[in-house]
Amino acid sequence: MQDHAAPYSAEDAFRDLKIRLAEQPGDPVLLHALARAAFDLQRYDLAVAYAGLAVKTDPRGAFHITLGLALRCLGHAAAGLSALRVAALTDPDNPSTHLALFEALEADGEIVDAEAELRFALELRPMEAGYHLVLARFLERQGRFPDAREAARRATRLAASDDVASRQNEAQLLARMGEVQAAEPLFARIRDLQPDDPAALANHGAMLFELGRFDQAADALEQSVEHAPPTAETLTNLGLVRMAVGDLAGADEVFSQAESMKPEDARIMLNRGTLLNDLGRRQDAEKLFRRVMAEYAGTPDAVRARFNLATVELAEGRFEEGWGDFEARKTLVRPLPRVDLADWDGTERAGPVLLCGEQGLGDFIQFLRFVPQAAARAPVTLLVPETLHRLVEDSFELPFWQEMRRIGRLKLCSSATDSKATVRASVLSLPRLLGENLPGWGGPYLLFYPEKSLKRKKALRVGLCWAGNPNYRFDRRRSIDFDLLAPLLNVPGIQWVSLTAIKTPDGLEPLPEGDMASTAAVISSLDLVISVDTAIAHLAGAMGKPFWLLNRFGGDWRWAEGNWDQRTGRHLWYPQVRLFEQQTSDLPRVAWRDPVSEVAAALTEMASRPSSIERH
Fold first, then answer.
1. pLDDT at residue 614 in the model
2. Within 13 Å of residue 191, how many CA atoms lie on the same side as its CB?
């Protein structure tokens, strides 16, 4: 059998150097080499001893560096720093001495002096990418992100074309700064340089997911899983991608794997809980959310778990609990305008309250119904999004608003700075502040516009909204590919009107440009609105217009069973809505077939007897 030589170890090097030193006693180079070998073996006492002997006969900078580092490792910070200062003075043109001194000064909290030493080293080696990389990391540690970004860019520009370290640093910095669009090409380049590295594939996949490029993200993450045993983080990202494209079963599979690998990971529990909620397994989801709240109390993860719990409670009609937990959202979204104002507690007051929206237009429209009740407790200045301003102002003619408007307790503003309010609140917080557990229905609260010279035709006029904002992470689950709507569009006797703000396909009357008042005017001319879960659905609902909702599997809490009157079968928010839901968790192109066919059948029946549509 052939013998294989054992690898040459640090212990071997240390032994051989001692033999050579015995042959050449007092040689400073050998003494320093022994000091370095002892340092590598973490024998810092011996490193100090040998380095100390070396500098007695040859006080060169490199020897003082080793002495200083070894002293600091033994806990002699001041003595070690002194040795490093001597190194810098002895060998001022060596960037390594300034780099070592920089690291020691930063560790001691001497940030200004540390930066000066680092920049001195950089002046000595201005074209070396590594020094710019060190500067970028230092500046990021100090929270100076724009400066760190510039240093990271210089490091990447100076680095070799196949260098990974500088690109990795810049990409990760940009990702932490939220500049995902700029980070993605760097992660793509790293993936090209390391095509078989699962980490490179996983990192690029995570960026593609953040950019909403889900198919590419899935490809990268699945390749990462195939190349090596996956990490829990990679599986979690893959699960999120599968959720986004509507593959709920596939998402459940990888989230389960991730959870088995890291059963105590709060992020994994939160994501799996969200998925279980979408799958209708609300009790299991609630257990995970409550577990995160208990085990990670006081953390952002616990706040997010509380908000997610609210969506379970509201879906089940547990409104008193749900509105309280729904308040957790306020730390997860952009702060309300006028941070100088205190939060209103819902009690009666003489001074005005600034009421604001905080999320999408649909949310704002849905919760507008509570504003008159708020105005009964305090004068209200309502900050309305620009695209809704004209519609809300015109709607004040409706009986729903007239009393509060008449007595001067309700006014609109377009800018928070125009308000003389002394407190503020979100319209989404009004149910909790007012103690209104059930939403109720007070009649239409957004205006029907008169139909100007509209001549009734025998055909039904039906508005169709098949897609929402593509930037919404789960838009591919709630929007419908237009070609899937063929069964609807083939129903005879229908005059179709587009309510989707994209290029209008052939056969549909286009949606005119303008604000939401313009859209409301179009809706006023319709017999029926058919929509996916977007602001259009809420607009039709608030106008009292009959509308049919095409709802994804595991849809939003406001369409779930707890939001329906179990005695009458009518929706608590919009009684005129009729729901057509996906019944399976299949991929969207499969899951939409049945509800679209059901809508087509119902529309065919309605078109045969148009008088069944309520006229307004």
1. 47
2. 24
Q: Shortest CA distance to 485 belongs to which of 544, 539, 538, 548?
A: 548
- Output 121-125 pairs: Cβ under 8 A, ≥24 positions apart: 121/95, 121/96, 122/95, 124/93, 124/94, 124/95, 124/98, 125/95
Q: What count of other Cβ atoms lies within 10 Å of the Cβ of residue 164?
A: 16
CA distance 87 to 90: 5
Residues 474 and 608 in one domain: yes
- The pLDDT mean for the chain works out to 93
- Give CB contacts under 8 A, 24+ apart, made by 58-63: 58/28, 58/29, 59/86, 59/90, 60/90, 60/91, 61/86, 61/87, 61/88, 61/90, 61/91, 61/94, 61/97, 62/32, 62/87, 62/91, 62/94, 62/96, 62/97, 63/28, 63/32, 63/35
Angstrom CA distances, 562 to 270, 387, 549, stand at: 22, 31, 17
What is residue 615's predicted lDDT score, i.e. its pLDDT? 42
How does 507-528 read in b/e, with b if 16+ C-beta sit within 10 Å? ebeebeeeebbbbbbbbbbbbb
CB 550 within 8 A of CB 482: no
Predicted TM-score of the model (pTM): 0.83
Residues of the chain scoring pLDDT < 50: 1, 453-454, 614-616
Q: Are residues 63 and 195 in the same domain?
A: yes
CA–CA distances in Å: residue 599 to residues 134, 386, 482, 527: 62, 34, 15, 15
Distance set, CA 607 to CA 454, 483, 531 (Å): 19, 22, 18
Helical spans, DSSP H, in 74-144 = 77-90, 95-107, 111-124, 129-141
Last residue of a domain, one of 195, 224, 253: 224
How crowded is residue 446: how many other Cβ atoms within 10 Å of its Cβ?
A: 27
pLDDT digit string, tens, across residues 300-340: 999 999 999 999 999 999 999 999 999 999 999 888 999 99
* pLDDT tens string 228-249: 899 999 999 999 999 999 999 9
- Say whether both 30 and 139 belong to one domain: yes
DSSP symbols for 285-321 = HHHHHHHHHHHTTTSHHHHHHHHHHHHHHHHTT-HHH
Domain that holds residue 371: 342-434
Indicate if 487 and 572 belong to the same structural domain. Answer: yes
Please report, for the domain that includes residue 586, its CATH number.
Answer: 3.40.50
User: Distance from CA of residue 570 to its chain's centroid?
Assistant: 35
Read off the tokens for 259: 């959870």
Within-domain flag for 475 = yes
Q: By 3-state DSSP, what share of the chain in percent is helix, strand and coil, each rounded to 5?
A: 60, 10, 35
State the DSSP code for 222: H
The answer to whether residue 236 sits within a structural domain is: no
Question: Which pLDDT score is estimated for 238?
Answer: 96
d(CA 174, CA 532): 35
Same domain membership, residue 196 and residue 64: yes
* Domain total of the chain: 4
